[in-house]
Amino acid sequence: MQSSHRSTAHETPADTRAPAPAVPSAEPIPEVAPSASPATPQPSPVFSATSQPSSSAEPRTTISISEYRALCHTLQTLTTSQSTLTQEMAALRAHQEQIIATQTQHTAILRQIQSHLGIPSAPQHQMPAPLEPTEPTPGDTQTST
């Protein structure tokens, strides 16, 4: 005999209430669509009513542990991607600086040849200054949990 009671013992809800920001942001927080794949149906969020008063002005939301784990996995993937992109950007900056240095050397050699041959040199163009590497600020790399 099949019971109509839905067992949720394996779906322990996880509290996902974000801590209140230390300084209120002037920018609105963007809405994010769930990233569940169509082949894997995800349980809808569980909203729990609790007798404990919330210390935050925002309502308390509870999600299933499987959705929490999926969000943690997505966060880890995004963190890894950000790290990889940061490393690639640093390598590109270094390569760009090498190209600019080589271009500067070639321009100096060309001017010497033009001077030696008595060819009037073209007006000098401003060389683009190498970009200063921008280090991510602590707020850029940390996420609130």
Automatic annotation (TrEMBL):
Biased composition (Polar residues): 47-62
Region (Disordered) residue spans: 1-62, 120-145
Name of the protein: Uncharacterized protein
Organism: Vitis vinifera (Grape)
